[in-house]
Design a protein that fits this description.
mainly beta; Sulfite Oxidase, Chain A, domain 2; 150 residues; 5-stranded mixed beta sheet; single chain
């Protein structure tokens, strides 16, 4: 959660996918919108949420699957971390395996049938089901660096 919400103009937004990949590339928001989209119900939970606490929520997310983008980039052997960076500079480290193992990781552009709200990451947010938000739910995502945890 950001203290100040970044205002990202989708006309200027780009996502860079690079690092330990064979074919680094960038995509614009318009290009992202031309990809195949899927809709999935996902629960997001904060690691600091106590039992019965308020830091958990369910939503229906619309976005493009993330795994095909990593396959397009050609993840190199030994790469095990996806280091995502948001427009406000926050970084999260996620296991590459969690993106590629079929759990419906995505780049989301809509939530509950509406354009993604700014407070939830407009114009684009990364989501990886089954992981706490601090390692899987980068809001305002602008950079995916494929690297290693070591």
């Amino acid at each position: 959660t950001a203290l100040t919400l970044p205002r990202v103009d989708p006309r200027d937004w780009k996502l860079k996918i690079h690092g330990m990949v064979e074919r680094p590339f960038e995509i614009t928001f318009d290009e992202l919108l031309s990809y195949r989209f899927e809709e999935h119900d996902m629960t997001l939970s904060c690691v600091s949420n106590p039992v019965g606490g308020p830091y958990v929520g369910n939503a229906r997310w619309l976005g493009t699957p993330l795994a095909p983008l990593l396959r397009r980039a050609g993840v190199r052997r030994g790469a095990d971390m996806l280091l995502s960076t948001s427009a406000d500079g926050m970084t999260l480290g996620s296991p590459v395996e969690a993106v590629l193992d079929g759990r419906q990781a995505m780049l989301a552009v809509a939530m509950n049938g509406e354009t993604l709200p700014v407070r939830n990451g407009f114009p684009c947010r990364m989501l990886i089901p089954g992981l706490y938000g601090y390692v899987s739910a980068t809001k305002w995502v602008t950079d995916l660096n494929i690297t290693t945890f070591a």
